[in-house]
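COURSE: Structural Biology Practicum
ASSIGNMENT: Worksheet 4, Part C
STUDENT ID: 0417
INSTRUCTIONS: Below are two proteins. For each, the amino acid sequence is given first, followed by its structure token string. Answer the questions at the end about the second protein only.

PROTEIN I
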Amino acid sequence: MLKDKVAVVTGGTRGIGYAIVKKYLENGAKVVLFGSRQETVDKALAALKEENPAWEAEGMCPNLTDAGEVETAIASIQKKYGRIDILVNNAGISESTPIYQYTPELFDRVMDLNVKAVMYTILPVVKIMKEQGGGSIINTSSMVSRYGQPAGVAYPASKFAVNGLTISLARELGKDNIRVNAVAPGVTRTDMVAALPEQTVKAICSQIPLGRPGEPEDVANAFLYLASDLAGYVTGEILSVDGSGRS
């Protein structure tokens, strides 16, 4: 579905991001994954290489909150491959600090990675996509962007911002054949969920009509669809992948 496409995936070393990278490689894309540390990047690349030596994957670890570093990394990718067809902004952090313990520094830390870094990556990529005649940008949102959460206000606030950025850019960039969408996962079986007590997971699942948490591959499938030509007439969508049946 993505044969010979060039994709950049931030936060691609584990969890949902790693599943997206793998799904794209399985479908013929060349993938550059971004991670927070060289150690995690190398580990992810080694695992991919072990699974299929023929996959074309490489990794980088620019500081996503530094616009200059991001621009340099994107320029190096364009220089090597000549194009960037798909950008996945998946890197981010969540937290659940009660408002009474919040600090300006904590709020800034979440917004810097979850919102500013998304924009810092988009800015150089859209120029490349416009020049080559189009592309697909997919941002990772969250179910909390629709429903909020009991504590940790910066995280849902950041994902509300991602939704607004997605919808607005879709309207602005459509004329340049650049599609912009987002995927809003629900509770997904990542390392964070795996660390929860079994009873907690059961309680969560009891509220999900499909009766289970999502798997990273469930979410990756949505990213595959939105990156592919099957979604050629889809832009400005926030696609929920949460098993809830709610819109």
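PROTEIN II
(use this one for the questions)
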Amino acid sequence: MIRDITIGQYYPADSVVHRLDPRVKLAGTMIYIISLFLFDTFICYAAAALFLFAVIRISKVPIRFIVRGLKSIVILLLFAVVFNIFLTPGEVLFRAGFIRITREGLRLAAFMGIRMILLIMGSSIMTFTTTPNQLTDGLESLLGPLKKLGVPVHEIAMMMSIALRFIPILLEETDKIMKAQQARCADFESGGLVSKAKSLVPILVPLFVSAFRRANDLALAMEARCYRGGEGRTKMKPLCYHRPEYAAYGILAVYFVLIIGINAAV
């Protein structure tokens, strides 16, 4: 299960999507997520899925990496679907005691499941094709106008970038600790909920110690390099729009207008 979490991981490849400006990918991800909440018809979801799979194909990221990331949200997905099926009022299709299934519940559960799957896959494409440094630069550039309001944009972007970069490291550290504990005959599977929670203590304690140690080492390294925030700092690779970025914005605009048009027509 630990290896199935793909958030924050980067898949190196030579594709058009990888070479795009990070601001385009951040804006595109937001537009795609917003579009998923603007409609509630299967035709629109099919169009959104086709658009997403086209982007995945162009990005040259293997589909198995995208699908593997869905395994980490299976429990959350099941909870959302089950609660919508049994708790949504409407036309009753099946009743057994206090349990009832409605037509509206099935429809809402299907939409919720599809929406969550497309949302996770769409977000994964951004992290798979964008390095943490590029994400930092893109976020800082997009949030730049907030500097006039006194918002520490650079610091916020830096913290988000560090958090994304540390996710794979902490997952790898958790996997190593679990294997070390299992080699000492630790059992994480058997027993009830309480015993399973207690068995996590030998994992969480060294994991927190390792995380704080890494955070301290990173802080010392940044201070040793005279890091004092983003004021006055220059970029080694300044962000600049070119023809592919403008074409990508045009494709996103066409997709958004097309989705709204399909939803209005249906």
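ANSWER KEY EXCERPT:
Q1: The chain has a mean pLDDT of 82.
Q2: The beta strands are 92-96, 99-102.
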